[in-house]
Design goal:
With 418 residues, this protein is of the alpha+beta class. Helices cover 37% and strands 18% of the residues. The strands form four sheets. A five-stranded antiparallel sheet has the order 1-3-5-4-2, with helices on both faces. Strands 6-7-8 form a three-stranded antiparallel sheet. The longest helix has 18 residues, at 177-194. The chain starts with a strand and ends in a 19-residue tail after the last strand. Residues 17-151 form the MobA/VirD2-like nuclease domain. Residues 405-418 have a biased composition (Basic residues). It holds the Pfam family Relaxase.
Amino acid sequence: MVAKIEIGTGIRGILHYNENKVAEGEAKLILASGFVGEIGNMTFQNKVDRFHHLTDLRPSVLTNALHISLNFDTSEKITNAKMQEIAIAYMERIGFGDQPFLVYRHNDAGHQHFHIATTSIQRDGEVIKTHNIGVDLSEPARKSIEKDFNLVIAESKQYKQESGIKPADLEKAKYGRSSTKRQISNVLAGVVNDYKFSSLAELNAVLKQFNVVGDRGKEDTEMFKNKGLIYSLIGSNGDKIGIPIKSSSFYSKPTFRHLETKFEKNKERRKPYKQNLIQRINKVFTKYERISKVTLLAELKKEGINLVLRQNDQGRIYGATFVDHQSKAVFNGSDLGKLYSANAMMERISSEDRLRSFLKPVIQQKTYVKAPTDKLKKNYLQKPASTNFLKDSSGKSEPDYAPSIKRKKRKKKRVLTL
């Protein structure tokens, strides 16, 4: 079992994320501890008010919300009743047993997992300390629960977990802004929190795997100057679909200013995973002296790696980004070393594939001159309605649209000197 804890500034956003999953049929509320009444009768506002009753006791504490997910091996089939027992045991062991909390079972990934929403503010207004809660409390709790409930040990070679993020459903974008926003929000919630990226380009390398892209606009626009950011759904050809949504309108607030605070931190967070990624890339290249682009992408994918190649308008590949879905680390090829830069990648790809990458854009950019319509033909043949006349030295007039006469150059006579 793997436990993940996120500490945030408001419970409302956490509840919206989970309730949206319920509305999409991708989650179900299976436990409401510390709440009065039946689960089925509780409205969204009932849930928010229960938590706000506590957080209002200490308004000075801004980071008061916890979003926890417990994830199981893909081979494990766990009933709702067993998930409830695990959730209660886990919350007791990390010191949140007396807090109100909601447990949502999600079915949006290949492995079974559930999410817990709670607050750190107690009924007497005191705050449960969450500093180092992951190492000090969550890890010991997780390991003891694995033994008590006979679960697959997370550190074992047997343990396997698939990504909990599903690509955005492009068909649902047809139903308008709210559906588009929900699809993008589900992807952002997983990617922004879990993946270690150090630039918007690296973030987009991940988002595009799930049919989403972030855009700041052109450099000369007001949006770019003000560090604005919008998110859109994209199709398989990279074209944007539906209505773009402002980053500030999402509850998780994935704005560019917020992302900037993550960039430098993620450079450090991803370092431990660099060598392992290089080893897995090298493993692919040792199989082939020359490799086609299709084979390269497929072999890397088997290793849990997506290679994103960026091309300019002329078709030249100028950037390579590696997305490691195992460690959730993202690296530009040049950050891994010269052998993994875009130029080096192109050298390793077979010459036939390299030639095709240059020819394809040229073929796509062909333009054809459309034959003029009858109406246009008439316009071409008609004389101007009014003509300005120029007078020559003899006083005669000639139109200014008269064709110019090309004069022959006189040959100079050669004079022979004796």
